Amino acid sequence: MTKHVFVIGLNDLNAERLKRLRGVEDVKFHPLLSPAQVSETQDFDIPAMLAEAVATLDAHDGSIDAIVGYIDFPVSTMLPILCKKYGTPQASLESLLKCEHKYWSRSVMREAIPDHIPKFTAFDPFDETALSKIGEADLRFPFFVKPIKSSGSRLGFRIDSPEDFDFATEKLRAEIRSIGEPFDHVLSQAEMPDDIRAVEGHYCMAEQVIGGRQCTVEGYVHDGDVVPYGTVDSIRYPQVLSFYYYLYPSQLPPKVQEKMWEITRTIMAHIGYDNAGFNIEYYWDEVQDKIWLLEINTRIAQSHCDLFEMVDGVSHQQVTVDLGLGRKPDLPHREGPQNVAAEFFYRVFFRDATIARTPSRAEIEVAAEQVEGTRISSYVSKGMQLSELPEQDAYSFAVASVWMGATKQSKLLWNYEQVMKRLNYEFTDIVE
After folding, report:
1. What residues does each domain of the chain span?
2. What are phi and psi of 352, to 5 degrees?
């Protein structure tokens, strides 16, 4: 019998990836809500989106075998609500929020892995005394601030002075309610301790600055068994917080990766997260030989899909679909055509600008042809403002991504340079 899997925010690219997964010959994939509704905007009306999703599911003539997604907020937080309603496998809302609500997450980490987290405190960015309260929590300059619920690196700032804090809070006050208010709706559906409920959706976190070589451990939990299955390095541009590329497999020492996997098993079991994929971002401080846990994301990293397909033979959406159907993921290992693979981010480091020129589709195709297997996504169009791009960090704008594989890392970097020589973007009205 055909199994019906509903995918929140399904786009054409991922529809093609899903067809290449293992064991999907009897699966029919259905889109649930559009990509524009869930990822191409900064305004999320979660009650309206849930109502539309329920109407679509109720109108479906057939079984509802799985409801899945691989996108951050708001998709990740809607999944437990929908899956509970229709009886399909997914982590509980409370266990998911113990990962996504950054203050609750740090609180449970403090219980299970206290040696691997920084000093932290929550604060209200609309509180004029917030900076002094942060100091009372034993946090000194420099420290990092971010919303208790964010997506990507949006609204994250390094604070080195009171002036930096003033700049960050001005930005936070202007934009944080676009995430905070819909997140409050999700929080209202969950059972939470009183001290956690007091930290509302518009609150922020202040944390001790941590650093080192950054990576992401991808994993899943199936019937209580926590399974890390891959580590991806996150390489930043020099002297800034913006990502340059993601590299798979990780080049970190095996003993460091093994320790990260051990920490991963400990914290995910402690949280009680089950029957869903996740990824955890870590730092390894080489000087102190110390591992820091940065944050937990309750989904596979969509940016890593092509990397796993190139190196292991199939996108790790395999994890999402198999778990959604209640089965143990059938994920291959090192069966792909490449030894290493990466997603590169082509960025511009302006405050804002107008896009005066973008590569044509033909130019993008020619650029991709420079290296077999390369895929390029351009995120901008002529005439738009960089500030219109959703989900950007505070320091740059990613105007394109390039996915490619190679036999070794040095060849990968050389290949990327050859491809980028063929792509021509131009900008006017630049705000430095």
Report:
1. 3-91, 119-208, 213-428
2. -165, 165
The residues, ordered by sequence, that sit 6+ positions from 154 with a Cβ below 8 Å of its Cβ are 147, 179, 391, 392, 393, 394
Asked if 108 and 98 touch (Cβ cutoff 8 Å), the reply is yes
CATH topology of domain 213-428: D-amino Acid Aminotransferase; Chain A, domain 1 (3.30.470)
Going by pLDDT thresholds of 50, 70 and 90, the confidence category of residue 95 is very high
Q: How far apart are CA 104 and CA 195, in angstroms?
A: 9
Query: Is 265 in contact with 228 (CB distance < 8 Å)?
Result: yes
Strands 204-208 and 290-297: unpaired
User: Would the CA dihedral through 203, 207, 209, 212 be positive or negative?
Assistant: negative
Is the overall model pTM greater than 0.70, yes or no? yes
Closest C-alpha to 198, from 271, 123, 126, 250:
123
Token representation of residue 3: 């199994």
* Phi/psi of residue 241, nearest 5 degrees: -90, 0
Which amino acid appears at position 249 of this protein? P
Tell me whether the CATH fold assigned to 119-208 matches the one assigned to 213-428.
no
Q: Half-sphere exposure of residue 324, counting CA atoms within 13 Å on the CB side?
A: 28
**Rounded average pLDDT over 166-183:** 94
Q: Find all residues with CB under 8 Å of 404, minimum gap 6, and list them.
A: 341, 342, 344, 371, 373, 374, 375, 412, 415, 416, 419
What proportion of the chain, given as a percentage, has pLDDT over 70? 99
Q: pLDDT, tens digit, for every residue of 306-338?
A: 999 999 999 999 999 999 999 999 999 999 999
- Asked if residue 239 has pLDDT above 90, the reply is no
* 105 close to 136: Cβ distance less than 8 angstroms: no
Nearest to 178 by CA among 417, 404, 390: 390
Residue type for position 92: S
- Residue 41, pLDDT score: 67
pLDDT digits (tens, 9 = 90+) for 331-348: 999 999 999 999 999 999
State how far the alpha carbon of 207 is from the alpha carbons of 24, 147, 204, 247, 309, in Å.
Answer: 43, 11, 10, 27, 35
CB 199 within 8 A of CB 148: yes
110 pLDDT above the threshold of 90: yes
Q: Which CATH architecture has domain 119-208?
A: 2-Layer Sandwich (3.30)
Residues pairing with 344 in the sheet? 245, 402
* Tokens 């497999």, located at residue: 249
- CA 86 to CA 88: how far, in whole Å? 6
Q: How far apart are CA 132 and CA 147, in angstroms?
A: 18
